[in-house]
Amino acid sequence: MEILRKAEIQQCASEALEKLDDFMAGAEENESLEGKFVFPEKIDDLVVDFLSSQKGQCCLLEGEPNCGRETILMKVLKKYSIDLRVINVGYAAADPLLQESLARENEQDGEYSVFLIRDADELISGHQQEFLYTMTDKATSCSWLVFFSISRQNFAQNLEKRGNSRIPRIRVTFDQQTPTFDEYCTAFRQMIIPKSSEAEKSTNFQGFYQEMRSDTWLRDFYELYNFDGLKKLAAMILMEVAMGGDQIPTQKTVENALCSLMPSNRKLSILQDQTLRSQCVFLCCHRLCRNRRAESEFLTPRTTFRTVFLEYKKLANLHYAPLNVNNDVFVFREIEHLIEIGLLKCEKMANFSNISFRKIWLDMDALTVEKSISDVLKLPTTVRDFFATILD
Amino acid sequence: MMDSQDIIRLRALLFNDSKSIGHVHVFGENGSGRSEIIRQIIRESDESWICTAGDFLYADGNMKLLLESLAKDMNFKTRGDKIEEFFCNLYESVEWPNPKRRKVLIFLDNAQAVVNFSSPILRCFFNSYKCISNMTVRFVTSAPSEWITYQTNIAIGHSPIPHFHIKSPNVEQCSQLISNALPNVPKQFIRFAVDLLFAHCKSPNTILQIISTAFSNYGEREKFEANRAGDCIKKAADYKLGLLCNKNQESTTSSDIIHSFESMPTSMRYLLVAAYCASNNSALTDRRFFVKNHGRDKRSEQKELRAEVNRQLRDLEPKAADLQRIVCIYESLVILHNDRSIRGFDVKNVASFFF
């Protein structure tokens, strides 16, 4: 019975996972969301106009990164089986020949093309505006339909005047007004249980969805990410369920998926992985920076390589002899390692002849560190006491 | 080192068909076998995927080099650093197991080196496959720390990248691994050594090296002698980890340094003294090294002493000195002591002394 149930859930999950690829949160025809999202039709109209009149046109696609600008555009173009030519701005900047070849190309063949300029925000910087002029001029002189994909609202204001005058007046805003939490939950449900699928009929799978109790933990996620992040989360959960081997999906599977996307505890787990020695070096740094006054209001409290070494020596000599080292090099090496993995930060450009006086500071939430001392890190008792006592 | 459930999860993460998961980042401490685990999983990959591996550290900020190494791995040719062209060529020239669903996994090791690439180029690299609709591309990166440590200019609310954490091995797993590798070393010795070293080093490879050196010094014994074993291990670990366990060792290390100074070649000793002089005195006072009687003949001794005190107050710490200054002071020191036989070397040799 259990096995059957598990198989059914896995079956449904993999089906849902397949359907997820085509799912567009917000763009779906949906009763609760209807009327809010009209951009596919707008683009559709533009393309139809263009096809009938063959008149060159430019258009801005405004929206946050990963809100589905390209996906919708591609879908619309696919409907009319038109090829899309995509240009990355970063790439165009790296290759000066590209702009030239584009400028020359259109005079030879009179056929129409549709362009998408990705990351057009970066066209703002002075010498790259040239590229914008080329594209807008060519669009009118021959039959080009050019889409600029941008994410900044003030794109036009930051351009020079000659750029500003050429900036397309047509714009499609993909501004999914930040969804409410209820909309977010509905979208999540739709991702897990897609419409007209096996999953919709399966009571077992519905039961699994209930067991997830998504409303309890989804809020944290909602505060961090938009629909695109949510889609990834749904994909992770479905993937864990569908390919989870012979284990029955539980709350734990969901936690795993959530954990791999939420950035909250990664630093702590990295710290846990360190050797006792480098944990102690890190905590020495924490102990020195904690409750200290910063040099100015814009700086976090800092300490130096040398003070950390002295503090570490104090710990080793007075409290826990096995940690002792015979040279400061070894402590400095640990500090550098901690900087590499991003737990500590250090002054960059200062040209020090002597490494001991370089400034370092913590790149991790001090409260989390504080809490971790007593339980998560499993330190020897004397070491724990050393770090738990507060300096005045 | 990882339990089977974790391996299944990682495999599912790497080889699922969802297009939403375009980039997976695996992180874990160096020496915990992070990349090796991924390689093993990829080796046993299912047939429908094409897998390839590249290395950010090898490419060293050069996109052309990275693309070429990936292309070579998949047996097709790409020219230059054109990322779009690369994905186009990839789409067209590779022999796909199933041309209807083209799936490729690109494993990129040492992702900590992405800091050497400029961010527009990287963004282009990770996104430009999206315009080819009939191809699934999954990037798998591997680095000691989370992705955001290396790519700091990601905006808040940027879509999350799935992370997978590979834990470093614990004491039991580590000693198990080592006793597999060294079958003739008694388990008791290994366990003792791992317990001793684990606070300082968690990498099984490093511990393995130390144990094999230590055991050859320790030799076969009938009964386990903890003191002797401890000494052997500490001695073997000294160079790599700098352990210090009893206090009288401290005095020996400082005498080691003096001893080592005496054992240096004469020219090297002169050079060290010259470097010391150059870095502890300002260049303005260098004159005294090159004139007779230290240039002191016109000043009274008292005046000189006062000047010396002032100098010391000003320059508390040594500063970086020009190599040229050091060499000049060295030469004059050698002339002063009439040791002509060791004069005349080129700057390259000097530099090799320092490193």
TrEMBL record, chain A:
One of its GO terms (cellular component) is nuclear origin of replication recognition complex. InterPro entries: ORC4, P-loop_NTPase. GO terms for biological process: DNA replication initiation. It comes from the Eukaryota. GO terms for molecular function: DNA replication origin binding. SUPFAM superfamilies: P-loop containing nucleoside triphosphate hydrolases (SSF52540). This is Uncharacterized protein. It comes from Caenorhabditis angaria.
TrEMBL record, chain B:
GO terms for molecular function: DNA replication origin binding. Pfam families: ORC5_C (PF14630). GO terms for biological process: DNA replication initiation. Residues 264-334 form the Origin recognition complex subunit 5 C-terminal domain. It comes from the Eukaryota. Gene3D superfamilies: P-loop containing nucleotide triphosphate hydrolases. One of its GO terms (cellular component) is nuclear origin of replication recognition complex. This is Origin recognition complex subunit 5 C-terminal domain-containing protein. It comes from Caenorhabditis angaria.
